[in-house]
């Protein structure tokens, strides 16, 4: 079911946090095409080579706090802590600050899939995310603020993720990929541009939407098949090296002793056999969400040479 859009505000202003993130760089052209002006919040500033759109003002956090007084829309593609800070500030400021009308927050499907992780650091991270989600819900409770928290699956699209792009980098360097047994666990990789699109649809929607929505990719495929498609995108022969789980974990632990901090742990290996599948039927029905199939190209594993353009309203 497609949604109605709010046509009553001319050039509304949206506060976009995480503007230089993988979702953010796709969201900006779409926001402009939808008629928004954008306050783009980023610690890194405008990415090199990114178009200097007239309707986009790049700000750091301190600058954005002052400039966001008249913003009625918040799209968080960055840390939820920052979104909470802006949302809380809007509620505690003087009457001169207009409250947000619509707030869209990106969380992660990991809050469901990693709650029982054997890795303490992962469990702690997930607990923090769940607490932030709860705080965001409490802030808007009994207020006329629309809040939607999206929980996407594996994100890819411009080389800024720590999953698909990491696999692509390994394949580029070594030409093979070790996997846990048959690596049969199911995955639903989702393109960042599809997430940007559904977020903006939700931002403009007049529908009553659930507070939390899962958003997955267009394909459900095994971890092994997902990796195989990355090989194809890299124009390399598919070379999966199947290892017993105990051996894979042992070799990984040895590697981490001599090269710590690579961001890979044994739980990631074990999860290659687990199905991480989420029902996004509500997003598809309520927001006409139609994510693309996982058919990656080499351009999806690095920042675009030319960023997407938009017809500014």
Protein architecture, described:
The chain has 313 residues and is an alpha/beta fold. The protein has helices spanning 22-33, 61-67, 80-92, 110-113, 120-140, 164-174, 192-204, 223-233, 245-258, 266-270, 281-287, and strands spanning 13-17, 37-41, 56-59, 73-76, 102-106, 146-152, 155-156, 177-180, 186-187, 190-191, 212-215, 221-222, 240-243. A seven-stranded parallel β-sheet has the order 3-2-1-4-5-6-11, with helices on both faces. Strands 7-10 form a two-stranded parallel ribbon. The chain has a two-stranded parallel ribbon with strand order 8-13. It starts with 12 loop residues before the first strand and ends in a 26-residue tail after the last helix.
Helix content: 25-40%
Q: According to CATH, what is the class?
A: Alpha Beta
Structural class estimated from helices and strands: alpha/beta
The CATH homology group name = NAD(P)-binding Rossmann-like Domain
Computed CA radius of gyration, to the nearest angstrom: 20 Å
Pick out its properties.
two-stranded parallel sheet; disordered N terminus; 7-stranded parallel sheet; alpha/beta; Rossmann fold; 313 residues
Layout of strands and helices, then pairs:
Layout: E1 13-17, H1 22-33, E2 37-41, E3 56-59, H2 61-67, E4 73-76, H3 80-92, E5 102-106, H4 110-113, H5 120-140, E6 146-152, E7 155-156, H6 164-174, E8 177-180, E9 186-187, E10 190-191, H7 192-204, E11 212-215, E12 221-222, H8 223-233, E13 240-243, H9 245-258, H10 266-270, H11 281-287
Parallel strand pairs: 1-2, 1-4, 2-3, 4-5, 5-6, 6-11, 7-10, 8-13
Antiparallel strand pairs: 9-12
